[in-house]
Design brief:
The complex is a heterodimer.
Chain A lengths: L2 E3 L3 E6 L3 H12 L4 E4 L28 E3 L6 H4 L25 H5 L9 H15 L24 H13 L4 E2 L37 H7 L3 E3 L3 E7 L6 E7 L5 E11 L3 H10 L21 E11 L15 E3 L16 E5 L21 H13 E8 L8 E9 L5 E6 L4 H20 L4 E4 L3 E6 L25 E3 L14 H17 L1 H4 L2
Parallel strand pairs in A: 1-9, 2-3, 2-9, 3-6, 4-15, 9-18
Antiparallel strand pairs in A: 5-11, 7-8, 8-9, 10-13, 10-16, 10-17, 11-12, 12-13, 14-15
Helix pairs in contact in A: 1-6, 1-10, 4-10, 5-9
Chain B lengths: L1 H10 L32 H14 L3 H4 L1 H10 L9 H4 L4 H20 L8 H12 L11 H17 L2 H7 L14
Helix pairs in contact in B: 2-4, 2-6, 2-8, 7-8
The chains are: A alpha/beta, B mainly alpha.
Chain lengths: ~525, ~180
């Protein structure tokens, strides 16, 4: 196959989602010449159609991920396809990891430690929340940081109904923290609480890359190339420096894009897969895999949703898709019972439409016919829900690998994810499930039930660490073995905590971008 | 794949199902606007079996065009698909539906001696209940429980997930950008 070669850039970034677009804007504004390669098509705000049916076009449409284990099945739902990636349909829940989440191994003798502490990341969390625009009130259970730039979104009818249960259990329900404008902010509109967040927010009240990062990046001269599927990172003959990336264009043609710095900013699974696909004579087991940890320590969050029907009207179709309110009481108690381990967080009052995976109909999948119709008529105005996220230990057995027996349309091995929840985390998840049902019963539901345990978020696989013999990158996402290759995204996290990862992902991107800016002279030839 | 099958099976507790009666008429005004069209991928019989199966799960799904909805999405590429299946098993979606439809008729003939389209209303409900309870006798692939889950979602989409469906449920649609058509 003839290879097309392009003019060299200083920085090439694989992936245009939240990690890639934020990095591109930061480095472009710092004067680097930056090219972003996006596997999917160009997206516009007009693609954000308010429909659960139509919004499926925003989801992943690349090679399928093979999955095995008892906590899998969310890959194609969670990932995005096209400009902005998953940033076009994310839920905008915005939380910081807690100080203990960075030192789980040291404090509890299990899982892993981060090479940095909360204090190292705190200023970047502060910066990120101002950049994205975060609404929220002070929560004594949240880690310390700057005040949020906007007041919280008001408590919804759904949360008001559920709050009675938290009060009865002696738990504090607070307003949620969201990258959603409660008032106009930074030239973007305030949220009108119509509950369509995960179909895309074309008014830009929810911070998404089309309204936030890409206008900045383009103004700074960043080039964005669509339908460019990055297949491998190339290195020099010594294997010590990356020379660029190979990508396949929409015509199936191989292209070589030379670059001084390569940044893999794909979704978690694809960061690990790209490095595994980039094996060569010097790196036979994958680029950056001298430690043998590439792909290992994949984690997720064990999710259980509590559903209920309330006597009062809850207007479940309104609000935000993420959550209206939050309970972090007890988050820092990682050992709530004998044989149980992990933090947990309650995300309460998610807007729900009738259809799709998180809709009211699928909350009761066993019901059909007239019973389904009766249920939906009740649920349309009286349904409430809340979801608990529980921590998963980082263990080497849970991992991302290549499956040579399954090939994508370009003949490359597909990714295979193995993830099973360790026993102590299962016990923790079951305690939370019981707690949730108690809360809903105390809230006065006429009926309350728990959904199954499912995965939410994909984390790890290219973990950072201080020791090159047990991690893939240093704390700046820089491969230990190839200094001009960086990774951005939740794949860097050694541990997942029990909160949504995007705030931490963004804080790390800003920290890494600052490192690249500061070390420009040594990173560029 | 095993992981997905367990995932869905867990979503459908087998002890909770209770028998119900079908509604004979759709409440969905939008359903009346869907015209019978030729199919791009399904045979006429495949489409009729799928529509009849979905209609037991969600009354009005047949009239709302569930078979056309699925057929239309399967005829394009994965990126343009509007089916929920793309989240959970995008490997060969057309094969999944075709095998499932074949499974419906195979099970129907084994249980009752007739294809699904010739069953009575109560026999059709018995088939759906068996899928919910993972109690099919001869239908194995694709997992009937998973096929029920997916086809139920398709039926919910066309009956309740459209602007007309929202209106029928009394839910304000509140669109930023209204869909150009139901699906």
């Amino acid at each position: 196959m003839t290879e097309i070669s392009h003019e060299k850039v200083e920085v090439v970034i694989a992936g245009s989602g939240i990690a890639g677009s934020t990095m591109a804007a930061e480095l472009g504004e710092a004067g680097f010449s930056v090219l972003v390669l996006e596997a999917g098509p160009e997206r516009r705000l007009s693609d954000m159609i308010s429909s659960q049916i139509w919004s499926r076009r925003l989801r992943w449409a690349g090679p399928e991920v093979q999955e095995t284990g008892d906590l899998v099945g969310a890959a194609n739902f969670a990932m995005g396809w096209g400009t902005g990636g998953a940033g076009l349909h994310w839920y905008a829940n915005w939380y910081r990891l807690h100080p203990d989440d960075f030192h789980v191994r040291s404090q509890y003798g299990r899982s892993l430690d981060w090479p940095i502490s909360y204090d190292d990341l705190r200023p970047w969390y502060d910066h990120a929340q101002a950049y994205f625009g975060v609404s929220g009130d002070d929560d004594p259970n949240a880690p310390p940081g700057a005040p949020y730039p906007m007041p919280a979104i008001p408590m919804s009818s759904q949360s008001t109904a559920i709050k009675r249960g938290f009060d009865a259990e002696g738990l504090t329900l607070t307003s949620n923290t969201l990258a959603v404008n409660s008032v106009p902010y930074d030239g973007r509109a305030g949220c009108i609480l119509d509950g369509w967040c995960d179909a895309g927010c074309p008014i830009g009240a929810l911070a998404n890359p089309l309204v936030l990062q890409w206008p900045r990046a383009k103004k700074a001269g960043v080039e964005l190339r669509h339908n460019a599927y990055v297949a491998r990172i190339e290195t020099d003959s010594a294997g010590s420096k990356a020379t660029g990336v190979i990508y396949i264009d929409e015509n199936g043609q191989e292209n070589f894009q030379p670059a001084d710095i390569v940044i893999s900013a794909c979704h978690t699974i694809w960061n690990a897969r790209l490095l595994l696909l980039s094996s060569d004579d010097t790196h036979p087991n994958g680029l950056g895999n001298g430690s043998g940890t590439l792909g290992h320590y994949f984690t997720s969050h064990a999710l259980t949703t509590i559903h209920g029907l309330f006597e009062q009207e809850t207007e479940p179709h309104t609000g935000v898709s993420g959550a209206n309110t939050l309970c972090l009481d007890g988050y820092d108690n990682k050992q709530p019972a004998k044989d149980a381990f992990g933090s947990r967080a309650w995300l309460v009052g998610q807007a729900a439409k009738p259809n799709d995976l998180l809709g009211t109909a699928l909350a009761k999948p066993e019901v059909f016919g007239a019973a389904l119709d009766d249920y939906l008529r009740k649920a349309s105005s009286h349904y409430g829900n809340m979801t608990v996220l529980c921590e998963e230990d980082s263990i080497p057995e849970n991992r991302i690998t290549l499956d040579p027996s399954k090939r994508d349309r370009f003949g490359l091995p597909q990714a295979h994810v193995t993830n099973s929840l360790p026993r102590a985390n299962v016990v923790r998840s079951e305690i939370a499930r019981s707690e949730g049902l108690r809360i809903f019963k105390a809230a006065g539901t006429s009926e309350a039930w728990a959904g199954p345990r499912n995965p939410m978020h994909m984390i790890g696989g290219t973990i950072m660490g201080s020791d090159p013999s047990s991690s893939v990158t240093n704390s700046f996402g820089q491969l230990h073995e190839v200094e001009n290759v960086f990774v951005a995204g939740a794949s860097l996290f050694p541990t997942p905590g029990a909160v949504n990862p995007t705030s931490t992902l963004a804080a790390l991107v800003f920290r890494v971008a600052d490192y690249i800016r500061t070390n420009r002279s040594s990173l560029l030839p | 794949m095993m992981g997905r099958r367990r995932f869905v099976t867990r979503m459908i507790p087998t002890t909770l199902w209770t028998g119900v009666f079908m509604r004979g008429l759709s409440r969905n005004a939008e359903a009346k606007t869907v015209e019978q069209t030729s199919f791009k991928l399904f045979t006429q019989n495949e489409a009729e079996v799928l529509a009849a199966w979905c209609n037991v799960i969600v009354s009005g799904a047949q009239q709302a065009g569930v078979a056309q909805f699925v057929d239309q999405s399967l005829s394009g590429d994965q990126a343009s698909s509007l089916l929920l299946l793309r989240y959970l098993n995008a490997n060969n979606m057309a094969d999944f539906y075709r095998k499932g439809i074949l499974g419906i008729d195979t099970e129907s003939r084994s249980r009752f001696g007739f294809p699904f389209l010739q069953l009575t209303g109560s026999q059709r409900k018995e088939m759906i209940a068996a899928a919910v309870a993972s109690k099919m006798q001869v239908w194995r692939d694709p997992d009937p429980n998973f096929f029920y889950f997916i086809s139920r979602s398709d039926a919910v989409d066309v009956v309740y997930g459209t602007q007309a469906g929202f209106a029928d449920l009394g839910i304000p649609y509140l669109a930023h950008i209204p869909p150009p058509k139901p699906w």
